[in-house]
Known about the structure:
By secondary structure, the protein is of the alpha+beta class. Helix content is 23%, strand content 24%. Mean pLDDT is 83; it is low at 1-24.
Amino acid sequence: MTRLGLLAFSATLSAGLLACSSDGSTTPKNPLDIVPLDSEVSGWNVDKEHARDPNARAMTGATQKEVEGLIDGGAEDFFLGTNTPKLFLWQNYLNSTLAAAPEGATVKLYIFELPSAEEAKGLYTQILTRSDYKMKAGTPDDWTATTPTLGEESRIQDTASQWWINFHKDVFYVEVLMDPSYGPPPDYAIGNLDTKQEAVRFAEAIASRI
């Protein structure tokens, strides 16, 4: 095959594997492919007790009402601004092997698909105006940048009960909420760097799938 022919083949293959959004960014054909199944992030399995799909695929909603039905309300923060999601994906995970959380750890994963990468960035920015995302009394630290950076921008906060990570990449806005034990505080160790590292590792794995 000539060099020109090889280039043409590569371009055709890339176009077949990726779907382009209106702003030129590329997204997976199926957003469900972003959401890990069992052990696709080492140590983490789908919490099947709370999964509604028998195949442990992510729960999804396409409207504010559908999202509210999934997460028992609390969806208005994502729909009040001008950057409105067109798809919401939610999955829960368990890890019983994390040394820093011997009683087991859980992760709640929220993924929002926006119409464009610009709107994903907009949701990431506008969400901080909502009261649930502002620093509260008793919170050890306000939002700080993650290390490494996840996606285009990312931040983390120790809420005094969990590690909470937000980031955006391409047309997706993502939240990872990690509770380092099944029990409520005081079982939670404020500022535990091992559980922080694990929360970032999980979020980094999600970012790599986008």
